Amino acid sequence: MPLYLFWFFAIVMLLGGVAVVALRNPVASALSMVASFVGLAGLFIGLNAFFVGIIQILVYAGAIMVLFIFIIMLLDLKTEEKRAPKLAPLLGGLGIVLAFTIQLIGILSKSPNVEDKPLDLTAASAHFVESSPGISAKLGAGHLPDVNLIGDVLFNGYNLPLQIVGVLLLVATVGVVVLSKRQTT
Question: Could you tell me which of 116, 94, 98 has the C-alpha nearest to residue 1?
Fold first, then answer.
């Protein structure tokens, strides 16, 4: 990823995160979270994690934020009236940000700037010869089938937990519908 794109997506993500906390209007705050998610997805795609970046957009910036907006509209939240900020929490928060920044600068200044070694896809293809010949063939040809690998691990190794999570999401959705219905008696 070119350096200017990294900084662009990093700044979009950070400004979105700051706006989530700083804005008083709940809808504007939720939309700022969408901007933060888009910046994070851009960083994932820059790391060649295309699947995670696309899922970040589809699941978090799409579905989860629609759910948040729906709940905010359902609850009919009003904007809080402005209060004078107290000095102690403000200084504590700025102190934490300053300490984190100092730690980050210290760690980044000591880390070496080396090139990453390319992945040995042919050696990885030997691992999947018996369990998933399709994945083994793609790895042997020099392609990284990240979606296939994630699906293989998810459905072969974690099938029962995946089904349980699906049922829990269905129950939660039914619960939201039941709780949101207004009783007319």
Answer: 116
Residue 52 falls inside a structural domain: yes
- Whether 45 is covered by a domain: the verdict is yes
Per the domain annotation, does 108 fall within a domain? Answer: no
Sign of CA dihedral 162, 167, 168, 172: positive
Please indicate, yes or no, whether residues 185 and 136 belong to a single structural domain of this protein: yes
pLDDT tens by residue, 33-53: 889 999 999 999 888 888 888
Record the tokens describing residue 112, joined without a space. Answer: 């070496």
* 140 is a domain residue: yes
Q: Name the band, by pLDDT with cuts 50, 70 and 90, for residue 19.
A: very high
CA 177 to chain centre: 26
Q: For 156-169, what is each residue's pLDDT tens digit?
A: 778 888 889 888 88
Dist. CA 17–CA 39, nearest whole Å: 10
Q: How far apart are CA 146 and CA 139, in angstroms?
A: 10
Q: What is the mean pLDDT of the chain?
A: 81
User: What is the token pair recorded at 48?
Assistant: 């060649």
Measured at the alpha carbon of residue 121, what is the angle toward residues 150 and 141, in degrees to the nearest 5? Answer: 95
Nearest Cα neighbor of 47 from 146, 152, 148, 154 is 146
Range of the domain at 171: 118-185
